Amino acid sequence: MASLEAVKELGLTKAAIMCLGGLPTNVKPVFGKTKAAKKIITVDGCPFECARKVVEQAGFKPTKSIVLTRDISMKKKGLSEDIGKEIKGVMDYISDAEIKQAKDLIVKTVLE
């Protein structure tokens, strides 16, 4: 959500979201867009940094790696905690304030 909000704020001439799964599966348009990018900024939800690792394994070096649990102190909640209980939507786990914080950090990073 935060990345989408950042792209809406910055516009597609300054920011875009790409299909991360297209890198290890060698999807040509994804590779082309990644090669053409002036900056590559990965946004990960936790310290495992899977997005950064996928980008690096595809041969690219992120300009900056954002980790939400580290950089804005977002608390990670395992969705598995609610197994067997009432099903919740993803937005029940993320506050509007956290989305705004993450969006602001992404925008700031793009503009650096």
Content-based structural category: mainly alpha
Radius of gyration, taken over Cα atoms and rounded to an integer in Å: 15 Å
Give the oligomeric state: single chain
Number of domains: 1
**Distance N terminus to C terminus?**
21 Å
Uncertain residue ranges: none
- Following the backbone from N to C, one meets helices and strands in this order, namely HHEHEHH
Strand order of the largest sheet: 1-2
Main sheet characteristics: 2 strands, parallel
User: Strand-residue fraction?
Assistant: 5-15%
Number of strands: 2
From the spread of the alpha carbons, the general shape counts as globular
Q: Helical residue percent?
A: 40-55%
The averaged pLDDT comes out at 91
The tally of helices reads: 5
Pfam family, one: DGC
Protein name: Zinc-binding protein
InterPro entries: DGC (IPR014958)
Summarize the structure.
This protein has helices spanning 2-10, 28-36, 50-57, 68-71, 96-111, and strands at 41-44, 64-67.
Task: Write a structural description.
There is one protein chain. Helix content is 41%, strand content 7%. The protein is mainly alpha-helical. Strand 1 (41-44), helix 3 and strand 2 (64-67) form a beta-alpha-beta unit. Helix 1 crosses helix 5. The longest helix has 16 residues, at 96-111.
Using brief descriptors, characterize the structure shown.
two-stranded parallel sheet; 5 helices; 112 residues; mainly alpha
Would you spell out the secondary-structure blueprint of this structure?
Elements: H1 2-10, H2 28-36, E1 41-44, H3 50-57, E2 64-67, H4 68-71, H5 96-111
Parallel strand pairs: 1-2
Protein name: Zinc-binding protein
InterPro entries: DGC (IPR014958)
